[in-house]
Amino acid sequence: MKTTDLTTLSNHAITMIAIQQVQNFLSRTYVFRYNENTHRIVYKRISDAEEFHYLSDYELNLMLKDIGNANIPCSKDLLRKAIFASYVQKFNPFAGYLNNLPEWDGKDYVSLLASSIITTNKEYWQSCLKKWLVAMVASLKEERVISHTAIILGGTHGIGKARWFHSIIPFELQEFIVPFTGITNKKQFFKDFETNGRCLCFEVEHINTQHGIPLDQLFAQLLSLYETGFQYWFNEDEIALVNEKNVQFKAVSVEEKVLISFFETCNGSSKCIYATGSN
């Protein structure tokens, strides 16, 4: 049997041999993945039917114990080097989910989902929801795509606004995804009205959080819409419509209320008073 004389090796070579020994043990015992979205490593034992979970110091200590029981010399620093080496396979949970969706069966699940919320403007709600959902899928599919809009639901406290948003995210993605959404119990909430064009605001009358929409089929439809060129962004005319619809949600400050109560804009024939901002 051929052996290596460690006295003839450099410290770097000795370290690399030790790392290889540890990696061989880890490969026989665990499965590791590097999450490209969270930039963290997840793992599970090969022998167990457990789900992948994040690697923490607690798990590292358990691994050190297993490695020691196998009579392999290893420190926590060496273990970290072995795990964080390039042999750990990278994965993207978003791409993994979208690439493994079933074929869309042709049913309009977007419209069914839209009908689970009753708003004061049905057609506008359906149109905006469809664009927002496809934009979300597009941003998951392509790094260059950014979803520029957020859906804001306003309505009575406790009717299920937050629960509804949670209900439309597949279980596989709930840990990773942060959709651009908002909820409020107030009807008038815009203070910075200049930025309102990015918000798709709706007054909600009723929500069915138990809609039972099959999310895999919903996302299969959204993916199909994206891949067939559906326009998920808002053009100039559509942005103008969003701004028009959002006027009703503008919050009027106390100062503005006073000005409106005591002053009015002059027309060409009326007598006016000029004033500066400090006045």
UniProtKB/TrEMBL annotation:
Protein name, per record: Virulence-associated protein E-like domain-containing protein
InterPro entries in UniProt: VapE-like_dom
Biological source species: Bacteroides xylanisolvens
Limits of the Virulence-associated protein E-like domain: 98-170, 180-250
Pfam assignment, any one: VapE-like_dom
